[in-house]
Design goal:
Number of domains: 3
CATH architecture of the largest domain: 3-Layer(aba) Sandwich
Number of strands: 11
CATH class of the largest domain: Alpha Beta
Oligomer: single chain
Length: 587
């Protein structure tokens, strides 16, 4: 059955579970765009990792594009507007190939190969034009041996932009005083207004540079850009940024997504301004070639960029844990990461580190019209506030604020620490009273679809233990579960508790514990639970590593339950998940 997009009033109505034929169409979209996690979990993000960034409900379908593009792809046939998008990508690709592949034979071979791919896409248009372009670029780079055709251009853009940033005209434009602040009554109000004026000037100027050609980066161009006149005309438009930066109780964690090299040098000046205000900034660059977008590796060959980013902490691990990321963010005000992609913005392909950085930040600054289409021109909501800003082809400045979904909970590092410290305080009090402290680790979500049953099993068995053991304080993690907290939040909280040094006995759930819990419920053990124990949980596996580490510092700690060597079939719990990583996906 062919579904006509016109039958849906909103992309939010296009979800799994409505009709099997629609489910098949959506899966066809995912597989043809190579985004389906179940088919290629090594390259694509799990739904739980997507939820770090996109506020999707259980059956809600998310496509990494604008509403307009997704509806065009679902229409039968090949709509004329969609054809124009495909043709635009093809022309860009052919121009790229002709400009950067000097070997005529090789160039003709991979252009012919890509022409076959292009015709297939037109014959059954379900592939995102941007994904088709990425596929063709990958063919170009692998067939021609060209590593990054735009690296010299990006280097030159940064060089001339760096000279402009250091010129007198730039300094005068950014630091010029105005008479608008003379009526200020409080010095801290004046300080904030001056900071916001600087941020506004830098944001507006940095978007101007995204429209300039390399030869236009010059002191004269800066002096003639008309920035002050533009700000006078658009007074008040910038209030949403000021409100976002001032609305928090303390300094913000800001994730910045730049657009283009050259303009990046102005973005770095904006970062420095935000750092001076006390905020922390994570700058996310591309993993590899995406035209003139700056990449994580550019500084290796670009001395100007390397100098501009001096003092920033570079993270080259694309799978940072929550603990590792937060430790880096605590110690470094300015962090640079890779988003893990060679695309504009695609949550299905971003790295674990980027997904966690998004989750731990308070505000996203997204620069460029392309990101505006991905963030604002979609009905889907996101988990963090987003400020999108860019200039259109005519040079007009646009600024949009998209608040995070109202139903999304953000558990701050401070809040999670408070919960952990409250439990540690209870443990300390129990030890002072001469009671033995027992920590019970068990399966919570490692049996898919059985999370509620797992919590009931743990809670019932711990309740039974409390009637059998005298003068003990037993910690049951299932009793401290809070709606909205994912595995990242919980593992971060429990690791603080587990490393406190107050645990006397660490008990890991055995198969006999589970059998006894079902017996207490008056039930036989269901087949899905038969033979299960804590070794089937990747969360418990991580906790066994912690337990053995803690035992090195506190030899009196008793670890009981399955043997430790039975745990180490898995390396980690799923990203943001309660469910296991499959055994065969681990080393």
């Amino acid at each position: 059955m062919a579904f006509d997009a016109s039958s849906f009033e909103s992309v939010l109505d296009i979800n799994y579970g409505i009709d099997p034929d629609l489910d098949a169409l959506l899966l066809h979209f995912m597989t043809e765009n190579h985004l389906e996690y179940s088919i290629d979990p090594g390259k694509n993000a799990s739904r739980e990792q997507i939820r770090f960034m996109v506020a999707v409900a259980n059956n809600e379908f998310y496509a990494p594009c604008s509403d307009w593009m997704f509806l065009q792809l679902l229409k039968p046939g090949l709509p004329e507007e969609l054809l124009k998008e495909y043709v635009l990508q093809w022309r860009m690709f052919v121009r790229l190939a002709r400009d950067h592949c000097p070997d005529r034979y090789i160039r003709k071979r991979f252009i012919s190969l890509c022409r076959h791919k292009f015709r297939m896409a037109l014959a059954s248009p379900i592939v995102l034009p941007s994904r088709l372009m990425k596929r063709m670029i990958t063919i170009l780079m692998t067939q021609s041996g060209i590593d990054d055709p735009y690296r010299p251009m990006r280097k030159e853009l940064n060089r001339v932009a760096g000279e402009v940033v250091r010129c007198k005209a730039f300094d005068a434009l950014i630091n010029a005083c105005t008479e608008a602040h003379t009526a200020c009554r409080r010095i801290d109000d004046l300080r904030f207004r001056i900071n916001m004026l600087e941020v506004e000037r830098l944001m507006r100027l940095s978007t101007m540079t995204d429209l300039w050609r390399p030869e236009e980066f010059c002191e004269a161009k800066i002096g003639e850009c008309g920035l002050e006149q533009e700000m006078e005309v658009c007074q008040g438009e910038f209030g949403i940024v000021a409100e976002a930066l001032a609305g928090a109780r303390g300094p913000l964690r800001i994730l910045m997504l730049p657009k283009r090299s050259g303009g990046l040098m102005f973005d770095i000046q904006l970062v420095n301004s935000l750092l001076r205000m006390g905020h922390k900034v994570i700058l996310a660059l591309k993993e590899g070639f995406y035209f003139d977008s700056p990449t994580f590796w550019d500084r290796d060959s670009d001395l100007v960029l390397d100098e501009a980013l001096r003092g920033a902490y570079f993270v080259d691990n694309d799978r940072l844990s929550k603990n590792e990321l937060l430790a880096i963010m605590r110690e470094n005000a300015f962090v640079v990461i890779s988003d893990g992609t060679r695309e504009r913005f695609n949550p299905y392909r971003t790295s674990v580190t980027f997904a966690r950085a998004w989750k731990e930040c308070d505000l996203v600054l997204a620069k460029g019209e392309g990101k505006f289409r991905r963030f604002v021109e979609t009905s889907h909501e996101f988990t963090r506030d987003i400020i999108s800003y860019f200039r259109d082809a005519s040079g007009k400045f646009h600024l949009h604020f998209k608040p995070k979904a109202e139903w999304v909970s953000k558990f701050s590092e401070g809040y999670i620490r408070e919960k952990a410290e409250a439990i540690i305080s209870e443990m300390r009090q129990a030890r002072n009273q001469g009671r033995a402290v027992i920590f019970y680790s068990g399966i919570v979500g490692s049996v898919p679809g059985q999370t509620e049953v797992a919590i009931k099993v743990m809670t019932l068995f711990v309740k039974h233990l409390r009637t059998r053991l005298d003068n003990v304080y037993i910690i049951n993690p299932a009793e401290h579960f809070e709606e909205g907290m994912d595995a990242d939040d919980l593992m971060y909280m429990w690791e603080m508790v587990q490393r406190s040094g107050y645990i006397n006995i660490w008990r890991f759930q055995s198969h006999s514990d589970i059998e006894e819990a079902f017996a207490l419920m008056g039930m036989k053990v269901p087949p899905v639970w038969a033979g299960k124990d804590s070794t089937y949980s990747t969360g418990c596996t991580k906790e066994m590593h912690i337990a053995l580490d803690v035992q090195q510092k506190h030899p009196e700690l008793q670890i009981i339950g399955p043997s430790p060597n039975k745990f180490f079939r898995r390396k980690e719990y799923g990203v943001g998940r309660f469910c296991d990583v499959a055994i065969d996906s681990c080393d």
